[in-house]
UniProtKB/TrEMBL annotation:
GO MF: guanyl-nucleotide exchange factor activity; rRNA binding
Domain RCC1-like per the UniProt entry, residue ranges: 228-508
Listed name of the protein: RCC1-like G exchanging factor-like protein
Pfam family, one: WD40_RLD
Phylogenetic classification of the source organism: Eukaryota, Metazoa, Chordata, Craniata, Vertebrata
Gene Ontology cellular-component annotations: mitochondrial inner membrane
PROSITE patterns per UniProt: RCC1_3
RCC repeats by residue range: 229-289, 293-356, 357-412, 413-465, 466-517, 576-625
Length: 627
């Protein structure tokens, strides 16, 4: 039976692999079995070699040329023809494929070698992995060992010595080593290639301080570095109002153009921008620089609201669409001494305020909104006309554009207006067109006005004592608290009991104010910021301060500035955070989605927001970088 099994194993070796079985002992004979590699795995080779070894063990040895030899060492031929050692000489125990033989543990032939699953003659189980032999249990009192990719690893005590590990670089002692270390033999030491390291000692506070002082310091921002002023834009960009040409006409870096930019996008500017305004499809930005160029425009220019933008192809023609910030030349007497304080945009006209040379207007003047005489049949496209407004009693310190009217506030606290008056938005007591800026009366006569606000056809004014006044359109209950009429043509005091007003804003159908405590109140019609259940109200409604960042961790957070577009609101708190809500026309809220926003939502901007300008379908923010 043993002879039959030996023959069977010999046939298996012949058909699958090449191996060499060397025998040594009392005799000098050698038996050699060869096979051919036919694409089979090394596992088959190992299996065949094991079967041959088992057959020889069962038969009492191998018959060689000089007699019967005792099995001593098993070698496997590697991929380069070099034999691979599987176990120590005379002590290797190989496992049977189905069970134990002579007290040996079962074995398993894997993809790369032989794995022993049980004990073998009191020795630890072994595993032949991808790179070598792994002993899993004790072996004659020695610690288990592991032959890994680079060496031998001992996992337990070995004849009373500490466990050792032969890694890629050297020997590591993991336990005591038979009294060689004296009283410290119980301490774990690490043997290096040149000896043993000393036991680590606790550092004194002085040594720790010296180490900390000598540690490198990484300074990312210079001590004298200043925070950078930046501009971010978003919303409808197909008319060029965002000033990004590649959005309208894709360059090599864009596969297709963009109609909408739903999140803040940085607009590169060469100078610090101090003021920005959004009109109906166009934008103005300005700087307080003393350079010749102080104002830039971008977007729709069909009525020359951005001035005459000369064509590069034909010097006599002008652009009706400006895709990037383009300089607007102003007729200044002393350009290097005059600074721009503010810009404002209406539906198709623009106002520019300077510190020394008054107010300039340009664009459509069909209703006298530019503060000059209306000319019948005037063509506004490709116009070179920029008008300087004069005859104010005192210096103008604030300008505001409505849809087709304009407001001016002087340093004396007086308010002037001109333009379309059909809804009473000029506040002059009539509903006619006014082409010359005229001072308002009514309830604001003799009152020091510190702010005026308008964007649609409703106007608000705030006094130095925190009182609120209003006039203009009231079709959406903007002024319903004082009258049931839908047009109010003179300023009226609004007797709201909401504290002293610090800032006010007017939209197309809704109004908003901020009191001295930083609370935001809204009224009118539309998405007012208190959810879908509040769509109209004639009295101011408080928006919960927690929606603007107030919490137990930020108890000092306050809103200090409020802005309105035609149908959206924007609020700034004292932490430089911007919150928006309202109609999200063409992504004008900048919140990354197209749905309307019924509650204040924080806009993600990489910096501290300083100011914001709202248009019909786009917005511009002035931002100060964090570092």
């Amino acid at each position: 039976m043993a002879a039959a099994r030996s023959a069977h194993v010999t046939n298996a070796l012949t058909s699958h692999c090449e191996s060499v079985l060397l025998c040594s002992g009392e005799g000098t004979g050698r038996s050699k079995v060869k096979g051919w590699q036919d694409g089979c795995s090394r596992a088959a080779c190992a299996a065949a070699a094991v079967e041959q070894r088992l057959a020889l063990s069962a038969g009492g040895g191998v018959s060689g040329s000089a007699g019967t030899m005792a099995p001593a060492r098993l070698l496997l031929t590697g991929s380069r023809g070099w034999p691979r050692l599987l176990g120590p000489q005379r002590e290797l125990l190989v496992q049977g494929l189905q069970g134990s033989r002579r007290g040996l543990g079962g074995s398993q032939v894997g993809q790369r070698g032989l794995q022993a699953l049980g004990p073998r003659r009191g020795l630890g189980g072994s595993q032949v992995g991808q790179r070598g032999l792994q002993a899993l249990g004790p072996q004659r009192g020695f610690g288990g060992s592991q032959v890994g990719q680079r060496g031998l690893q001992a996992l337990g005590p070995q004849r009373g010595l500490g466990g050792s590990q032969v890694g890629q670089r050297g020997l590591q002692v993991l336990g005591p080593q038979r009294g060689l270390l004296g009283p410290q033999r119980e301490l774990p030491l690490q043997g290096l290639s040149r000896g043993f390291a000393k036991v680590a000692k606790t550092r004194s506070s002085r040594e720790v301080k010296e180490v900390e002082d000598s540690a490198p310091v990484f300074q990312y921002v210079g001590e004298r570095s200043k925070r950078k002023e930046r501009v971010f834009v978003w919303g409808f960009c197909h008319a060029g109002a965002l000033g990004i040409p590649s959005f309208v006409k894709p360059d090599a870096g864009w596969k297709k153009g963009r109609r909408i930019q739903p999140t803040p996008y940085r607009l590169d500017t060469a100078v610090k921008i101090s003021s920005a305004a959004c009109g109906y499809g166009f934008t103005l930005i300005s700087s307080k620089t003393t350079d010749i160029t102080k104002v830039w425009g971008m977007g729709l220019n069909k009525d020359s609201q951005l001035g005459f933008q000369r064509s590069r192809k034909d010097q006599t023609k002008g652009y009706e669409y400006v895709l990037e910030p383009s300089p607007i030349p102003l007729p200044l007497d002393t350009p290097q001494e005059t600074r721009i304080l503010q810009v404002s945009c209406g539906r198709a006209h623009s106002l520019i305020l300077t510190d020394k040379e008054g107010v300039f207007s340009m664009g459509n003047n069909s209703y006298g909104q530019c503060g000059r005489k209306v000319t019948e049949g005037e063509i506004y496209s490709e116009s070179h006309l920029i008008h300087r407004l004069q005859k104010f009693e005192g210096r103008v310190v604030q300008i505001v554009c409505g849809q087709d009217h304009s407001l001016f506030r002087t340093e004396r606290g007086e308010v002037y207006s001109c333009g379309w008056g059909a809804d009473g938005q000029t506040g002059l007591g009539h509903y006619n067109i006014t082409s010359v800026p005229t001072k308002l009366g009514g309830d604001i006569a003799g009152v020091n006005i510190v702010q005026v606000a308008t964007y649609g056809d409703t106007c608000l004014a705030v006094s130095d004592e925190g009182d609120l006044f209003g006039w203009g359109n009231s079709e959406y209950m903007q002024l319903a608290s004082i009258t049931e009429t839908t047009q109010v043509n003179v300023p009226r005091h609004l007797p709201f009991k909401i504290g002293k007003i610090k800032d006010a804003a007017c939209g197309g159908t809704g109004n908003a104010v901020v009191n001295e405590e930083g609370n935001v109140f809204v009224w009118g019609y539309g998405i007012l910021g208190k959810g879908p259940n509040l769509m109209e109200t004639a009295t101011p409604e408080l928006i919960p301060p927690t929606l603007f960042g107030l919490s137990d961790f930020s108890p000092d957070t306050r809103v200090f500035r409020i802005r309105c577009g035609l149908s959206q609101f924007a609020a700034l708190n004292n932490r430089g955070e911007l919150f928006v809500w309202g109609k999200n026309i063409r992504g004008c809220l900048g919140i990354g989605r197209m749905e309307d926003q019924y509650f204040p939502w924080r806009v993600t901007i990489p910096g501290e927001v300083v100011d914001v300008a709202c248009g019909v379908d786009h917005m511009v923010t002035l931002v100060k970088s964090f570092i």
